[in-house]
Specification:
Number of strands: 4
Structural class: alpha+beta
Largest sheet: 4 strands, mixed
Strand order of the largest sheet: 1-2-3-4
Order of helices and strands: EHEEEHH
Shape: globular
Distance between the termini: 40 Å
Strand content: 15-25%
Helix content: 25-40%
Number of helices: 3
């Protein structure tokens, strides 16, 4: 496999031992409401803060919304940190729409 991007949640990252880009791809490790970590080949990891919600609730599809937000950001491949922030916004928008 030669993916351009890999997405993992915290549990998946621990299981796979992700502490660097996986398969030489830009790797996004999300941690729910906690900051995500972006691993880019040849660079130091970057922690990207999540957006806060005032309530808890059903988080079904939040990870999918995050990935969609990242990949629909026009510069995701050249500016993955900005794309990660867009992913956080997309997931937060989805969760806020349920209130």
């Amino acid at each position: 496999l030669r993916p351009d991007a890999v997405f993992a949640n915290g549990d998946e990252a621990r299981l796979l031992g992700i502490e660097a880009p996986l398969l030489d791809a830009i790797t996004f490790v999300k941690h729910g409401s906690e900051p995500a970590v972006v691993y880019v080949p040849g660079r130091n990891p970057v922690i990207v803060p999540a957006l806060r919600l005032d309530h808890g609730g059903d988080t079904t599809a939040a990870g999918d919304a995050f990935a969609a937000g990242v990949l629909t950001c026009p510069a995701w491949a050249t500016d993955p940190v900005t794309a990660c922030a867009a992913g956080h916004r997309a997931a937060t928008d989805l969760l806020r729409s349920r209130t």
